Fold:
Amino acid sequence: MVDADDVRRLALALPYVVEIDSDGFDFRVAGKGLVWSYPEHRPGEPRRIRTDIAVLYVGDEAEKQALLLGEPEHFFTTPTYNGTPLVMLRLETVDIDRLEELVTDAWRMRAPDTLTANPEAPTGAPPAFPTVGLRVRLG
Structure:
């Protein structure tokens, strides 16, 4: 079982990942989101940030459907995410190894090729990426 702290630790260990200031967690590389807290919307209620559920970038619709159909105990979606390569992950249902795999895969798909080709790159935002309004944590 993992939690938001595990997501934070794994995401920030990846090269050039920055955390956006939010009520939960929100991690990006090169300005592109890879994993963030699920903003649950319920009719007639204000949005609720769920740090027990992560929204993950998965690359394409085929990968999304494979996860949703193959592992429904871990993954789900909502109509808000129809047509987007994003799934929601129930953090309490996976172990740290699975979470690391998912976060790393999301990073590989979102990071520019120049970053993924150099796995020894330092953590934190490189100077070429915009950091205005971002909370940057250097490893």
User: Anything to note?
Assistant: The first helix runs from residue 4 to 12. The beta strands are 17-20, 26-29, 32-40, 48-57, 75-76, 86-90, 134-135. Confidence is low (pLDDT under 50) at residues 129-134. The longest strand covers residues 48-57.
